[in-house]
Every structure is written in C-alpha cells, then in structure tokens.
Fold:
Amino acid sequence: MSRNCILVGAPVDSGQKTPGCLMGPAAYRVAGLASALLDLGHRVSDWGDISRPAAAHVEPADDRRLHAEAETVAWTNVLTDASRRAMAQGFPIFLGGDHAMSLGTIAGVAAHAKAAGRPLFVLWLDAHSDFHTPTTTTSGNIHGMPVAYLAGCAGFDRFLPFPHPVPAQNICLFGIRSVDEAERAALKGREVSINDMRVLDEHGIVAPLRAFLLEVEAAKGMLHVSLDVDFLDPSIAPGVGTTVPGGATFREAHLVMELLHEHNLATSLDLAELNPFLDERGRTARLMVDLVASLMGRRVFDRPTRGHG
Structure:
C-alpha cells in the first residue's frame, strides 16, 4: 500500500551532552532515505528541518539542573505542532536528533490520535527504558525521559502537559538492556510490556512482538514506532553516543521491521540518536535507511547486494 511519507527533520541535540545528533537529519537524506521510499512506490514530501526555536527562560529544578532544559522545552513545543500537522497529512518519519525529540513528536501524534478518537500505542525500540523524570535523573539528560513523559508521569512541570497520556498497557519496551534503579522502581507495578533482551533471547523476536501487534489491531489503535540507533548492536551501528553491547543483530532488526510491515499498523516513526560524527563512513545511517525500507515494504529477496545491485 502506497503511503504519503512526510520527512520531518528534528535536529535536536539538547537532550544529552555528546554533540552530533543535530547532523542526523542530513545524514539520513545523504544515505538515500527519500530514494528508498520512492523506489518502493511511496510518495515523499520532505518538510526540511524544523527550525531551532528560541529557548524561553526556564527556572532550574530546585535540587538539580537538567541539561539544556529550556532548549528542550522549546524543541518539544515546536515539534508537537509539527507532528500534529504531519499526522493530518500522511505518515510522518521524524529524522532525529537525540531521543528528547520524542517528547514533542509523540505529543503531536497523541493529540492527533485523541482527535481521531483512536487509542495510541507506542513501540519503543531502544537499549534503554527512558523512564526517568526530572526528579529521578542523575545524569540530567532529558533524552532518558520521553517514555515517562508520554505515560503521564509527574515531574514535568516545566513542559506542557502531555496532551493525552498513553496508557501503560499500550506501551511496549522492546530490546532494552540498560535500566537504572529509579526506572526499574517506577516501572514496577505498571502494565508496560517489557521485552528486554533476556525475553527476546528466550522467546525470540516474533512471539512477543506479534502479541503486542495483535493488541493494537484488536483495539483499532494507531501505532507510533520509536527506533533508537542503540536498539541495534554497536558492532553493526556504531554511530550513536549511548552504545550498549548485546543489541539486535542485523537480521533481528530487519525481522522487527518486516513484521511491522506485514501487520500494517504503524502510523508514524521516530529515527532517534544517530550521531554521524561517531559513525563509520555513513554505515549506521545506511543501515537505518535500510530498516525503514523494510518497514515500508522491502522484502528480503528484493534487497540489492553488492554483486547484484
């Protein structure tokens, strides 16, 4: 099925302290994202990069200062608006940018889902649970907080209220392998679906992912997919500042995307945490583009090889 794909550059670099993620949107374009989508029969509109907003003064938290809080609040506001507009016109693909971008992209998606009267589900493909809040973080990095924000957790007083918090049972953390104690305590007792690498090692990729997708389908929900580069093993995706060993392999990652395509439930996509400054000749950017192609319909036997491209 042909989609109207809308590329929205989100050059957010304020959610963490390793410079480089602001170059992510350009790297995806150079790696041929638009061409890959066009080759699959989709329509593509590139809205360019969202302009960096002016950061209003934000008073720091009482007992700690979040890294670049004012700038991230401003990014969240402008991306919420852009996301809402993009959702009304097609299938948005948000080109990040560190994962703090998702505070805004998913807020806009949630506002659109609420207006459409449909439940929103979120598939979080990441090495980390990203369930810190401004009151639990020890690093001060806001890119570790988007899942807590979209779940409606307290502590985000300096951000706009999330437009329609996503119920815990509608959130699936997939492939995680790095969770801080505060995050573990916050997740305990919640109905978030947690499929860490131990679960995937024991049960494989297909069964837990398909179970979640069947829930989305039964609820006639909208599905936002948030793909962090560090979901992948660093041996195949070095271009990220938060590498954690033991991530998804090349084929495991493609299988996730192929299953998403087969179920045809995804309605929006984040590509987060690509840092071209840390990449090896565009290797990670090209892999991420290839994964998007699998999500959008490229099959195994359609994939070009060096000898038969």
Summary: DSSP finds ten helices and eight strands in the chain. The chain has a mean pLDDT of 94.
